[in-house]
């Protein structure tokens, strides 16, 4: 779209971290930005539950920590002025499987309610991780070196994490256990995500000394960023239609039971693909773009994301 107007009118859809940061950076450059959020609060997948808890207690239902390799997130946390502390490392893990509380620790390994092989039961959870992941971690190579991706890395990227684990001899029971923990958290899980992405993420996470968490809850970060944006955010605005032409973009959204429209020069959509599928585009997007919304959005050569362990007590 060609426009001679400056500052351009830009609408950002979604007040998760991507939408918040995008809006802030555009505002710094002098653009006229409006941020539309369907929910009543910012944060998206950062969600801290406080209801039904005693004062000062909370539970993270989304992101619970920030890995040291998340340089941009840490930078925005520092800019926002939230207090960061090292994530405590407990000496045991707590899992709920089939309604049962399972406690696992080096001193008292858990009797996992899964069809593991005799060797896997002897190895325990940590031993299985070491046995099945070490070959893949070594095969990923270093993405910061010239000549990467290597042949081995490309091969890993051609398979899912589940396919990789099966290739290493992991039983169906072991794979089920891996789906409970951190390995399942990225994208749509190990049955869909690239083995290369998952292994690179685990490799980078394993090299870190510690992860950070935010005092008072992870939602402090999006809330502080939202305060900086101020009145440019409109909450309770669920976008339903986006009509685009060579002249402008028209966005239709619902707010408090009424339908509104807003026009702009450009629109930036910063929402999960599962929500994006519900928006009607006119004219329709290309078949390739529409297909990317319908499939699980994990395409080759992805970048590392979270760091975590199945020993933090988070669920």
Instruction: Determine the number of helices (DSSP H or I, runs of at least 4 residues).
Output: 10
Radius of gyration: 22 Å
The CATH architecture of the largest domain is: 3-Layer(bba) Sandwich
**Separation of termini?**
44 Å
What is the CATH topology classification name of the largest domain? FAD/NAD(P)-binding domain
Major sheet characteristics = 4 strands, parallel
- CATH level-four homologous superfamily name of the largest domain: FAD/NAD(P)-binding domain
- CATH hierarchy, class of the largest domain: Alpha Beta
Shape: globular
Q: Helical percent range? A: 25-40%
Q: What structural class results from the helix and strand content?
A: alpha/beta
Keywords:
alpha/beta, single chain, globular, Guanine Nucleotide Dissociation Inhibitor, domain 1, 4-stranded parallel sheet, 315 residues, disordered C terminus, 10 helices, FAD/NAD(P)-binding domain
What can you tell me about this protein's structure?
- By secondary structure, the protein is α/β, with parallel strands linked by helices.
- The protein has 2 domains: 1-89 and 210-283, FAD/NAD(P)-binding domain (3-Layer(bba) Sandwich), CATH 3.50.50; 107-209, Guanine Nucleotide Dissociation Inhibitor, domain 1, CATH 1.10.405.
- It is built from 10 helices and 14 strands.
- It has helices spanning 17-28, 71-80, 118-139, 151-157, 161-167, 172-178, 195-206, 220-229, 273-276, 287-294; strands spanning 9-13, 32-36, 48-49, 59-60, 84-86, 93-97, 100-104, 212-214, 233-234, 238-244, 249-255, 258-264, 266-269, 280-282.
- Strands 9-2-1-13 form a 4-stranded parallel sheet, with helices on one face.
- α1 (17-28) runs parallel beside α8 (220-229) and α5 packs across α7 (195-206).
- The longest helix is centred in the middle third of the chain and has 22 residues, at 118-139.
- The radius of gyration is 22 Å and the shape is globular.
- The termini are far apart.
